[in-house]
Amino acid sequence: MSEPSSTSEPSQRVIIAWTRTISAEYVSCALTQQLGHWLTIVAASPDLIRAAWAIAEDELVHAELATEVVHATGATPAPTLTRALMEYPRELDEPLELAIARACLRSFCLGETSAVPLFAAMRERCRVPVAQPFFDRVLRDEVRHRDFGWLLLDWLLLTPQEQAVREVIARELPARYRTHYRGYVVGARERTRTDAEQAWGLLPDEEYARVMDRSAQRDLVPRFAERGFTLDVDAALRDGG
């Protein structure tokens, strides 16, 4: 396999993938700012509030680094931001802690926990120098983001809303995991990657399923079990059809 240089002409799929990365990082930045605001409203631990603001800053830095990669491809970054995706939903007739629990489950306990091994797999294949700083920074940050999610869940389980939080997590975990998994793996069926595209950090389709399956059994199932929740991965995927 030849080593591509930083000036290797990227495919259109490389440009699209990195442009989507910019968008995803902006979405994460906005959502985490909202979460930080909610944590302030419920008088969460100051450490958690500060951590949320720090994570939002991290996501903005990630967007900037991804923008540099798109510039390096010779394209003009034109991320598409769907504003409806940049806010967490909330039921106004229930305690805010339950909206925080849903956000924590979706973005951190599931999203950031799986992001660590996924980005590691991307970084392992990345051989284009201009893209490597993005992965280096993201991998350093994502571990802290993952840990924040589980610490936030632990804090929620110490509040007067513990029982309601437990009911929400237990009820919504299977469907949320199914959506989380399929967002990566089902979409990956169309993501066949050439060696050159992998050198830009794009993950081949079969790797998504392998990384997600391993992460579920190694990271998700035991972490939820430690907190009294059961994640039956096979049942969650099967029950969704």
Strand % is: under 5%
User: Helix proportion of residues, in percent?
Assistant: over 70%
The number of strands is 0
Tally of distinct domains = 1
How widely separated are the two ends? 40 Å
The CATH first-level class comes to Mainly Alpha
The geometry reads as globular
Q: Determine the mean pLDDT.
A: 92
* CATH topology heading: Ferritin
Largest sheet: none
Note the total helix count. 8
Instruction: Report the CATH superfamily.
Output: Ferritin, core subunit, four-helix bundle
- Poorly predicted sequence stretches spanning 5 or more consecutive residues: 1-7
Work out the radius of gyration.
18 Å
Explain this structure to me?
The chain has 241 residues and is an all-alpha fold. The chain has one domain: Ferritin, core subunit, four-helix bundle (Ferritin, Up-down Bundle). The protein has eight helices and no strands. The protein is globular, with a radius of gyration of 18 Å. It starts with 11 loop residues before the first helix and ends with a helix.
Short characterization:
The protein has 241 residues and is an all-alpha fold. It has 8 helices and no strands. α1 runs antiparallel to α2, α2 (46-72) runs antiparallel to α4 (132-156) and α3 packs antiparallel against α4 (132-156).
Features:
241 residues; mainly alpha; Ferritin; 71% helix
List the helices and strands and how they pair.
Layout: H1 12-41, H2 46-72, H3 96-125, H4 132-156, H5 162-185, H6 195-199, H7 205-226, H8 233-239
